[in-house]
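Notes from the pairing session

We agreed to fold both candidates in a single pass and log them together. This is the raw record for the first candidate, unedited. Please don't reformat it; downstream parsing expects exactly this layout.

Candidate A
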Amino acid sequence: MLVPIAAVVLVALAVGIWAYTGPIADARARDRAERAEAAAEAAEATRLEVCEDELQESYDSLSELDSRLDVGVTQSDFGGFVGDAQVLFDQIDSDVVEANSCAAYEEMEAAIAIYIATNSAWNDCIFDDYCDPDTDLSLGSDWVTASEHLDRAADGGLGRADGEPA
């Protein structure tokens, strides 16, 4: 008879301890999870800030080039703008971009590649007796594609003073 009473007392004691510590443990677990989430959000914000610091100047140059195309440019002016944008793009530290997984970089890289290719094609066409830039080249559609790449780079927080996606 003593064994069953001791077992009941032990079970009651265990239930009492759990009832007392269970909510405390749950609160501690929630607190740890909230702190871990806050730390992850802070790390992501820092990563995005590093990306923006590294890419913003080059992005601004590409965005300016894109804006100039909306009003029209000559081939020689376009070549100068592309060259200026390429100089700034070449100054991006690829180690920083890679270490921080800066997604906007790939979009910017695609845009500058399009601008370089269209500049070369336009220049070559000018010196080709049988080429008409207005009918033989697809500069406008290529520039729209480059602009779309820049829009996607902006969706990553570039180009906005508040860092929020466009």
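Candidate B (folded immediately after A)
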Amino acid sequence: MDDQTKLRIRHAFDRLAQDGALTDLDRSLMEAFERLMHGVPEITDGTVTIVNICTEAGVSRASYYRSPVAAAVKEILEAPEIRRPEPDELRAEVARLRKLERALRSQHAGELRELRDAVTIYANQIQVLALAKAELEEDNRRLRQELETGAGDRRWSGCGSAATFLMYRSYVGVLRVVVVERQPYPSDLSDEAWELIRPVITSWKGQYRSVSGHEGRYEMRETVNSILYQARVGCQWRYLPHGVPPYTAVY
């Protein structure tokens, strides 16, 4: 205990003695308080608390609060220049550090939960993408095999008046062949009309190569249907509807 603290305690207790007669209980409380402030307790752990003051003095808390010493002790401990015993200061610092540790643990626990949730989401997405890639690779292998053996041509032939053509799409490096079937337009050739002109178209096609760069990509019947649609509707070539060959293959 430093000199300033000793002086403050002595002045406070001297005022009590001047204000009125002190009882033996009051003196016991004053001595117990001074022992705790000096850091030399007799029967307690040395913490400056009301319970320890009463225990050191051998009195009840009710008797303590009836004594004028209680007000003097409160005044002393609330003074900003008063330094508590070193054990008290160390205990206060330990309590502060433990509180800070709990706060940091709580904060880090929340961050760890968020990281674990993010890892779980990414792991699930990776698994889904891996399964999708494996499925696409299997589709690609099967379709290539069908195209090489000619099964693909048999599969997509004879689809009737509902026009069908092939679209090639690349997804994660895998070739996919998608069959797109549309509803017929009123201007489409009927099966009978197509059978009438098919020999002519086939013969003409055999003599002239495509200038559009779409050689063999679209059925000739669909190409003729696109020409008939444009002639009937009168739209610009670029406005041909979806589901028919593009204008670059028709115009």
